[in-house]
## 1
Amino acid sequence: MIHALKLFNSLKREKEDFKPIQEGRIGMYVCGPTVYSDVHLGNCRTFVSFDIIYRYLLYAGYKVRYVRNITDVGHLLDDGEDRMSRGARLDQLEPMEVAQRYTVGFHDMMQIFNTKAPSIEPRATGHIIEQIKMVEDILARGYAYEKDGSVYFNTPKFLEDGYPYGELSGRVIDELLNESRDNLKKQDEKNHPSDFALWIKASEDHLMRWPSPWSIGFPGWHLECSAMSTKYLGERFDIHGGGNDLKFPHHENEIAQSMGACGTAPANYWLHTNMLLLNGRKMSKSEGNTISPTELFSGNSQHISKGYSPMSVKFFFLQAHYRSPLDITDDALQAAEKGFKRLMETLKVLDIITLQFNASATEKDKEILNTIRESKSHMDDDFNVPNSLASIFDLISIVNSLKDGHISSQEVSQSCWDTLKEHLKTMIFEVFALKNDVEESSSKSMDGLMQLILELRADVRERKDWTTADKIRESLKDAGIQVKDGKEGTSWSYDI
Amino acid sequence: MIHALKLFNSLKREKEDFKPIQEGRIGMYVCGPTVYSDVHLGNCRTFVSFDIIYRYLLYAGYKVRYVRNITDVGHLLDDGEDRMSRGARLDQLEPMEVAQRYTVGFHDMMQIFNTKAPSIEPRATGHIIEQIKMVEDILARGYAYEKDGSVYFNTPKFLEDGYPYGELSGRVIDELLNESRDNLKKQDEKNHPSDFALWIKASEDHLMRWPSPWSIGFPGWHLECSAMSTKYLGERFDIHGGGNDLKFPHHENEIAQSMGACGTAPANYWLHTNMLLLNGRKMSKSEGNTISPTELFSGNSQHISKGYSPMSVKFFFLQAHYRSPLDITDDALQAAEKGFKRLMETLKVLDIITLQFNASATEKDKEILNTIRESKSHMDDDFNVPNSLASIFDLISIVNSLKDGHISSQEVSQSCWDTLKEHLKTMIFEVFALKNDVEESSSKSMDGLMQLILELRADVRERKDWTTADKIRESLKDAGIQVKDGKEGTSWSYDI
């Protein structure tokens, strides 16, 4: 059965019952990365949050089309050097080469965090035709105007006709007068400071450029998401997500563009993730208060005492609700690492516990099944991961108590145990998508272990304890390891 | 110093000295996968071959822009079912969702084979504007004509004006009359059977479609590579590569399109990889004579006796020159696996050999340095990987002889040893991009080893051999392993 969900809708500033447009189906659009620099840790948190939301929606029985774009329109300029060889294509800086490097880096990082690829991952440069079409639609409905090859959205006209502008971000147009991102450049061209660019005529040195009815130019930076969400999810879809910092102007302008082009708002529910702090303060490169994912993994940063595995970091992310800020501190990371380790140890034990459970239902069953239910209903309630995890840890305690004999296995029925086992694995590995990345570092340990075994083997041989020597030989063979005694001593290798 | 190279140019059917258009720089375009099904093993071989070529060009001192496209224009049709809900976007089959699934699968497979991402990976759907522009250019120069919303290349006119058609594939136009791929459909629209489509008007049920000056339609399947290679590498670039099966009509038509649009052929050197056979015969699904990469890895196929690791398969690919066919047989795979294992074992030994080498140059040095030179000159000679590998294996033999004492370390100078070590690692890990994927399966072995150690530990304790017990404790601690003695016996875990 499909779960009923409650979502906190940023547009209404309250939790609402979720009603999909089509029963059982969800269209979800999330603003993806700009691929002209390495992905920030804050972005990683956002994409991990939406990955868990995506995975939970699938778990909850929905058929989901999850679209996350790649912003690969880069505003790189011809540096003017080497003009003599401009004709030689290979000498020119190629924005797509830069975009490719960071797209690959982004995908690698998403894989490191064990996230699922979205259903569609459209690129802004791949949808110029659709963006031009949208500008034409907005122009045709009278909510944009052209000036010298550029096209601007007409915000006052939009408001005049009763459309909302500022509803999502809670800003009023007077405030916007002083804040508009486009204030500084080309403001002479705009009729009103709150108007924003839909299409921009390219200057001589702007490398990325496409033909359009108005000029050789490029799309304004809000347009791609409107055009691509419409193309793949329709004019109106269920969920639009992104980081808090995108509420204004990006998402506000997306709403205006969609309403300008076709009269309807794009999404019914807007979900926004909150920011990452570092030692209580906003991350800021200029103040040195920043840490990158790779620094976090390697420990190569003044802000942390050691490196943390990607899954420990991910588990740390899960400690806060997606709508709450999360403060990175070394202490909090260490605590998360410990919790993660405990979780993984218990999960490792799950399959090897061989206890005699009760054949029929018990009192304890009720408690366990109730906690399982809780861990899901917390997720149904606006994807409350930390609360759900708390229930999961209650279940983990029960497993450990069973293992240690503090609870007798006769107090729990076999069927309840099976349900519990299945539920823990599904939630941890499929929904939260954690995996044991500590285990994976085993090859470092292998050399140490093999050295120890070879020393013990030498002792055994010296003692002429052939029974043990045989046992060692057999065990190594079973473990797929080949030992060779040579001139320089004994060496070992995997037996392919 | 940049290496001088010889390339076998398919266009000339002979080996030529390679002269880049710009000194020290190479623009290379390789036809990538169509992402509407899983990547074939034959494609994997092609992309692995070009990956090694790309890596070797970098090693040889060139600055390379390597472009490999993704063909994501899919010819999926609206199945006509469920017409009532056609307005509901989520109910419609979305070609990009299919393309995304197989693009991700393709990237995963390329990662499994340890290939580098190309410098740019353009998508056909992302370059419709550029393709339309190219059709306009061909029309403007008189080498195409429009019929009922579709545009066709005018092959007879092209030949009439003295341009070559059939030069790459060695076909003459009379032969083409009976072979043209487009023969069966719409041939009534074409003036001549050898003409081919540049733009195709979309039928009612064709899902992917874009506006153009001629019709709402989609580009012909040869056009994307011409448009994208021109965009990212210029009208004329150095190397164009692909599988042998693409020579005709795809590459032949690419040449015609470029010449038709701007008068020059696109690439100076055409490189083509040869095909994979299975048990001496062409792979064919209908005859059951086929094997997929995953079947090869898992062993789940009637054609092989067991699974082979991805690196064993890659090493098998390296046994043949890229221009030769390669026959997959279980015996050949087993032989490759053995050779690969031997290679990895020797490379593992490289860093741990502690021999006293000669302080000054020796006679043996000359032989070693000469073999190193050979291993490179084979690669300079049209990327002859098998010959280069043979030289590498001569070096491997020397390393093994040194290790076993068959050659005294005094016969080799320290500086020569350092060069040898560096060269082997660079060629194997950086150029051929192999890695020890046997090592990585160590976690399976870990459990077996730990079980053995814990048993030995119990024996030792029973014997009250505290010295050995202490040694075991210390070694495990050093290996990062924590042992807990509990009620249910002893368990172990990694010590985070």
Note: Residues 453 and 472 of chain B are 8 Å apart (CA to CA).
## 2
Amino acid sequence: MEKIIVNKIKSPRLSNPVFIVGLPGIGNIGKIAVEYLIDKLKMIRMTDIVTQYLPPQVFINEEGLIHLAKNSIYYKKRINKNDLVIVTGDFQGTTQEGQYELSYLILQLAEEMKASAVYTLGGYSVGKIVEHPRVLGAVSDRKMLEVLKAAGVVFPKGEPGGGIVGSAGLVLGLATEVFEMSAACLMGETSGYFADPRGAMVLLETLSKLVSTDVDLQELEERSKQIEEITGKMQQEGMQQKPPGKDDLGYFG
Amino acid sequence: MEKIIVNKIKSPRLSNPVFIVGLPGIGNIGKIAVEYLIDKLKMIRMTDIVTQYLPPQVFINEEGLIHLAKNSIYYKKRINKNDLVIVTGDFQGTTQEGQYELSYLILQLAEEMKASAVYTLGGYSVGKIVEHPRVLGAVSDRKMLEVLKAAGVVFPKGEPGGGIVGSAGLVLGLATEVFEMSAACLMGETSGYFADPRGAMVLLETLSKLVSTDVDLQELEERSKQIEEITGKMQQEGMQQKPPGKDDLGYFG
Amino acid sequence: MEKIIVNKIKSPRLSNPVFIVGLPGIGNIGKIAVEYLIDKLKMIRMTDIVTQYLPPQVFINEEGLIHLAKNSIYYKKRINKNDLVIVTGDFQGTTQEGQYELSYLILQLAEEMKASAVYTLGGYSVGKIVEHPRVLGAVSDRKMLEVLKAAGVVFPKGEPGGGIVGSAGLVLGLATEVFEMSAACLMGETSGYFADPRGAMVLLETLSKLVSTDVDLQELEERSKQIEEITGKMQQEGMQQKPPGKDDLGYFG
Amino acid sequence: MEKIIVNKIKSPRLSNPVFIVGLPGIGNIGKIAVEYLIDKLKMIRMTDIVTQYLPPQVFINEEGLIHLAKNSIYYKKRINKNDLVIVTGDFQGTTQEGQYELSYLILQLAEEMKASAVYTLGGYSVGKIVEHPRVLGAVSDRKMLEVLKAAGVVFPKGEPGGGIVGSAGLVLGLATEVFEMSAACLMGETSGYFADPRGAMVLLETLSKLVSTDVDLQELEERSKQIEEITGKMQQEGMQQKPPGKDDLGYFG
């Protein structure tokens, strides 16, 4: 079989779309953020990616129907603004080769569509619950640096110390070194202990400025409060927080 | 060498056969079930699959003759009914790539033979001994859903929680997403603690309805009782049951 | 680079040679046996195999000169007897793919040279020190079975229980299932606790009958006695024997 | 994507350059040594190597700009001396295949440029702090042996016992067995407990003789003293030294 099978469901004509990549990772905030956007903007699924680089696993819906583990691409046509394209999915590539191949494929698709910019979303694990999470950035070039700073993204020296591992970093890295595209990674601060809607929310606040969307974040605010109530109780009850399990959040950032 | 070597032993003309896949897995019940069927229906071996995706291992028979670890395909021609094809073997593919390549190959063969449907058999580990195991299902489409429900297969919401991992899930997933074939996975409940003929039996009871076979299950019933006697004693003696070791039952479900 | 690089050093014309494969494994006895044979028969190196399937490692000789980890092939022309070819090396392939590719390559070379038979040598770990180790066998076909029985090889039912893992098994398995060559595996009993010249000796005693060599085994007898003296003392001193570490003997049998 | 992408930044005409390879490894001394040389000789970056064989990781500089994990090649044209080429990078290949492919590529480039010799730099972990580290050698041929001995490199019998693992060994091994190039590995003694400028310094002292450079080592001397002050205090305070973590220094030697 082909190592990657690209199933085109729709082939819309898009005008210099902005590409946004949000896959499972630290605090799962990249994925939560883009799924919220897909839902609120009623984005349309255009492509499925079935591949050996994802686990041999199917998921079962409430009726008993399955879908195979995959990545998918959604789009939204907009008037007088760049169109939007979002890449998300069940998993990141599970091997180094898979990480590179899938990130490269995403950028090939972005190049074909003459994408105007690529944003990747990820979490920055700070190991404790943060009340007012910042959004940190990393960029391909100085022009993008200024764009992000104008949107309130911060660039503290030496953070994140180990760089960025996984697709959020690699898509940015390949965009910079191989595709020579303008790209940035937005990292929301998160405890990293659980799926974190608060971190997703601050990502979306920043992203909204960057790609000119106007999405009501109230539902995400409510989900954040629910989580915070639970974790607040846990803290009062003196329960010790454990570092996140690999199973919860995926290995890659 | 080729990564997969397909040795055709016989090339029968089959009429829209039903494909049944039962490989080693949880409780080993898929494999026990299809091996019982192969034996009782005197099915004929038509294809051997030798491949790098299986362990570098030979098995020795009582005389001292060996066979290499492989997967094999058996068939049974039937009058006024769809012919039967069964896929089984010593192991599932040991890597993610191997899982995909071997599942894809099975479906390519099914497509070539114009298979009418594909059933995969697996175990659903419930972590305790079950007196009356249910058969759970997962399907490619609504029509298949109705077929399975009519045969008594159940579809409890949210079970199995993590979806289906391994070839039982992947063959179904690729059938659905890539080959657009009608397919289903039947999962027999099993403790998952040992090779479980009771789970295999309930799978065969259900499968018999689906593919119109009439196989005497008495031997399987006897093997189940023997096992239950042993495990019953173990429980009386207060021995604690341990979760299954990876070595006993294979990693994939 | 090519995944396997075959460097031909000499290209002798060989007459239906017998192929003997002895690579590192349980008790290292296959390798000790063939290295002894290469030395005593003054066999000539004809081929080096450099490959990604072996560790990225060089060894340094007493002078400071290096050789890269590899497998090598030696030959011996004989009058009125089949010529001999021996395959040995620093390691077995370190991955499943490597195991298959290297075993397949050996059989391709055997086929090209019209080998009359293939013998693989390995150890059978019995977990305790054996005074009079047996040589167990496993074969491709009934004719080979009779040949081995005539040479004193035993075929106890159900031994080795798990079959044969690694190149000693795989070369036999691929010879049987893919190349349709006459092949056998000879397994010398060994504790598996250390490099075991006694096990190598009994392998050579049996092999000498099978391939009509007449090699003085005295040096091997002396090395065995030295080892047995040491291990005898260890037992008297009540030292507990530990199972062999992966590092000592290689992973595969 | 291509498994290895070679980005040529400059294509200078070089005259029989000496190739020096210093990648992360034991005590990190190979990398420290060549980075010092690149800096002091103001060497020019000519090639970037982006590849699936390195981790999916980007690094962020103080401004917020990223670079993808990669290997790079630098050169220095010299008058009346062989030109210099240095290979270094963020990581060694992370898999066996990656180790071979990247080492092979380096030698292909060396061959294209008609390199006069190849030196690889690595550490020899002695497990304790060494006041006057020696430089050990391993070579492709006797002529190179004499050259190294003349430069004070030592060749103690049986050291390093397990040979050389990783790119420092493999580049030498492939140069010897496949490319038939004159090559050597220089190993500086190091505790292996931390990034060790003292070990890098003795490597550079030796290398300077071999490739006729004249680099002021004072900064490296100062860094060594700082480290030694810290580790000296640690010893006085009776702190136990731990073996190096995989994360600090990379897996391969």
Note: Chains C and A do not touch (no CB pair under 8 Å).
